[in-house]
């Protein structure tokens, strides 16, 4: 199984997520993670979808089917070594009175993670990184009581000098400053 | 279609591009969403709508009342009938058919026709009523998530919740439905958007392009050159022409191309009639029940030129064994079809007409008589083992092939044949001698039983000057027979032939061949079809004797108005040749 990251640039319209995910569902391809946000261009959304698949050929077909959707402007399929990618994870750790104290220095320096919220008897720690780094940190935190753990979908940019402007159709786009 | 640059109106219908100066005494009132919808349809050149009114689409129907002089609304008996009729109309007209139905069950009844239109690339614009904006998502009366339901089966769908959106959305809908690879679009229009007034003057501009949707019509030169090189070096080239040729209106270009290169032409089921059957280069049609030679020799071609076809499994049989020996040129407007089933050595993305025009000067004049004669050898075998026995029976019931063969002779192969799905569909395709382009309307990809009667009606509306004959099985007929009422009410001279064997024939054939004759729920106790037709006000007769068949067909064809002919045919007849499901095409069976 190879991990593929599919980046989809679309118009920002209602229902498009459904239209895209139907393509995966119909072909029985599981979505490992999905992230959507607006890009630097107003009205243009970027979907980052991670899947695992045995066949590159099938992924290419999938990409072509996604491109067929009217509101989709561009689709790119990447292998991991073709992109810079990251995820963000939040850990809610129990810190009861008299309990094991957190080693914040190790958390900061070794794991490049940060306490972003101090509650009365818990803290929230934020960690960005790839899958392995996050789960490595998860392993470290197991010594404490993990009350909650949440991980975002992958965000990724291609290792290319090109920006959106070079592969999206020309139009009068507004840019965020 | 007439191109209209733009139309600007107020509710008086006055072209008010320079007259929209508000007056203190008589302020301008703008159009309602429903009126804007009607104006948009007229501006788009729509003259016919197939529909069925209901609560959530009533404001549109109220607006339609004032447009009866410009738009011919046809009241069907069931929304599925509206969809199929619009398909038949679209196939004949070469532009989008329009359906108008209400919310909830009205919309869900359309679903089968929409799915059918998507897989067979038929342009449809389906306008569906929806509950008011405030009621969306509340499970209100007759509310269904039509957007969700139709997302996988439409080329595009959109929900209008604001009257100001109507013109823009309609123009976009027609553009998407009719451009590139045609297909169905659906517009879900809330009742509130139908009722509320626009806040600005109505302006309709035909959509010419969409930023995120740019179908390639003109092919890339290097792709065309690569294809030409393969063709010019071929020893046993073979053209497989599909529905895309017809959709691109490229019949002449196909003929010029084939004649110059001397390449034999086979068609898919939906590609039939793109080239006349008596053309010397025509070698038959492909697929599960296609011709013997076309199937067997597919695996002996060295270059296959596939034009506007998508290698459906009914064409390829076992795709892993299909044309492995050949270099494949795939001419296709939809890039996602390239390499989907069969790997293309030379893909050419573009409109079939444009691609063939670009190819023509690059190909060498050639003659593959020896190769073409290979097909004739197989034709002779098929003729002897299949055709002659089927057409020369003197005992037993009438056979389906006899009916189609006689109909073909009596109509000179020039009728529009609209078929339903099953054995009769295959027989119609095998034995009708198509001589005019755009003469077969059938449900290919979806295989929708019940398609023929409403589609024949729509085809007749779309081609009033042509003889339209529906070929229907007894099982199929009972799925949409209520549309007899639509045909009679609209006085359309549709001729319908029911080939009645009291069986779901194709399923029965499979049960016979692959399930040891375990006939599981395929025998029908049929009603008296002619009495039913007469109940609707339609003339007809039953023919169950061979000696009466010719007269019965003559009576039907000469009848002034719609007519139903029931022909009682052999109960347990099988369609051969046949490529068993999952077998390779060269394993085609003659018995």
Question: Can you describe this structure?
Answer:
With 177 residues, chain A is of the alpha+beta class. Chain A has two domains: 2-81, ACT domain (Alpha-Beta Plaits, 2-Layer Sandwich), CATH 3.30.70.260; 84-155, ACT-like. Chain A, domain 2 (Alpha-Beta Plaits), CATH 3.30.70.1150. Helix content of chain A is 25%, strand content 41%. In chain A, β6 and β7 (122-129) form a beta hairpin. The longest helix of chain A is centred in the middle third of the chain and has 12 residues, at 56-67. The N and C termini of chain A lie far apart (41 Å). Chain B folds into three domains: 30-195, Rossmann fold (3-Layer(aba) Sandwich); 221-370, TPP-binding domain (Rossmann fold, 3-Layer(aba) Sandwich), CATH 3.40.50; 397-569, 3-Layer(aba) Sandwich (Rossmann fold), CATH 3.40.50.970. In chain B, α16 crosses α23 (546-558). Chain B has 23 helices and 20 strands. Chain B is globular. Chain B has a six-stranded parallel sheet. Chain A binds chain B through residues 10-11, 14-15, 18-19, 22, 26, 57, 60-61, 64-65, 67-68, 70-73, 169, 171, and chain B through 147-148, 151-152, 155-157, 159, 176, 210-214, 334-336, 338-340.
